[in-house]
Amino acid sequence: MRKKIVVGNWKMNNTIAESVQLAQDVLAQLGEGFSGCEVGLSPTFLALQAVGTVIEGSSVQLVAQNCHYENDGAFTGEISVRMIKATGCSYVIIGHSERRQYFGETNSTVNLKVKKALNDGLKVIMCVGETLEEREAGVTGALVSSQVREGLDGIDDISSLVIAYEPVWAIGTGKTASAAQAEEVHDLIRTVVVKLYGEAVASELRIQYGGSVKPSNAAELFAMPNIDGGLIGGASLNAADFAAIVKAASEC
Ligand code: PGA
């Protein structure tokens, strides 16, 4: 039985003080009622340490939004896995579509980052998903399959990896994939993973959905057999909405 996982991706929002306040509000809203679901918060790098202090002692986990694949050195503006781990993070999001779209990330840089994070003991949320043009061109399946295959190239153990399916056309647009549309791609991703790693590993893999998840659509999405939680952007900036989504996942 896969435990659902819901992560709030705060993206480039909130100062350190605002992040601390939001984390406190999220904890207050969550109360005790989320044992059925793993929960993570992903503030900006600047606020990781401070948010880590707020959530210390709770079961909420700290998640970074990106990492570099080298240990250290002349990579101005980058943050290494070692540095991220030292803040108390347990997960890192890799290959978010905004990183692919605006910062030139490719399947091969995603692969380098995934390898580095997993090798160094940081769990990974690896994002995949198609644009509207790709969906309309009928290449969603082929594209997502190659993102999964190339992202995981050379990686033997995916027990500390989660895949997030995030159709780019549904991110921050208010357009959600229908539960059936999302389930179809989640099922396809699991089939790709069966081919790569076998049935047993694939049946343990958690596949999150991301793209305009809200309290009003969360339960329907999370009820689908291959949807194992959510990566939440906009709605995670509101503590009550995020807590409602976590509750929906806990009750599925
Ligand atoms: P959204 O973002 O919930 O605002 O659509 C999701 C994401 O990008 O992780």
In terms of topology, how is this protein built?
Elements (H helix, E strand, L loop, with lengths): L3 E6 L6 H15 L6 E6 L5 H8 L5 E4 L16 H6 L4 E4 L2 H6 L4 H13 L3 E6 L3 H5 L3 H12 L9 E5 L13 H19 L1 H6 L1 E5 L4 H8 L6 E4 L6 H13 L1
Parallel strand pairs: 1-2, 1-8, 2-3, 3-4, 4-5, 5-6, 6-7, 7-8
Helix pairs in contact: 1-2, 1-11, 5-7, 7-8, 10-11
Mean pLDDT equals 96
The percent range for strand residues is 15-25%
Q: How would you name the oligomeric state of the polypeptide chains in this document?
A: single chain
Helix count?
A: 11
Series of H and E elements: EHEHEHEHHEHHEHHEHEH
Biggest β-sheet strands, sense, barrel: 8 strands, parallel, barrel
* Bound molecule kinds, no repeats: 2-phosphoglycolic acid
**The CATH homology group name of the domain at 62-237:** Aldolase class I
Residue share in helices?
Answer: 40-55%
> Strand order within the widest sheet?
1-2-3-4-5-6-7-8
CATH architecture of the domain at 62-237: Alpha-Beta Barrel
Number of strands: 8
CATH class of the domain at 62-237: Alpha Beta
**What spatial form do the alpha-carbon principal axes imply?**
globular
CA radius of gyration: 17 Å
Q: What are the segments in which pLDDT stays under 50 over at least 5 consecutive residues?
A: none
User: In CATH terms, what is the fold-level topology of the domain at 62-237?
Assistant: TIM Barrel
Supply the helix-strand structural class: alpha/beta
Could you describe the 3D structure shown?
The chain has 252 residues and is an alpha/beta fold. The chain has a domain at 62-237: Aldolase class I (TIM Barrel), CATH 3.20.20.70. Helix content is 44%, strand content 16%. The chain contains eleven helices and eight strands. Strands 1-2-3-4-5-6-7-8 form an eight-stranded parallel barrel, surrounded by six helices. α1 links the parallel β1 and β2 (37-42). α7 (140-151) packs across α8 (179-197). The longest helix is centred in the C-terminal third of the chain and has 19 residues, at 179-197. It starts with a strand and ends with a helix. The relative contact order is 0.16. The model has no long low-confidence stretch (mean pLDDT 96). The structure holds 2-phosphoglycolic acid. Residues 9, 166, 171-172, 210-213, 231-235 line the site of 2-phosphoglycolic acid (PGA).
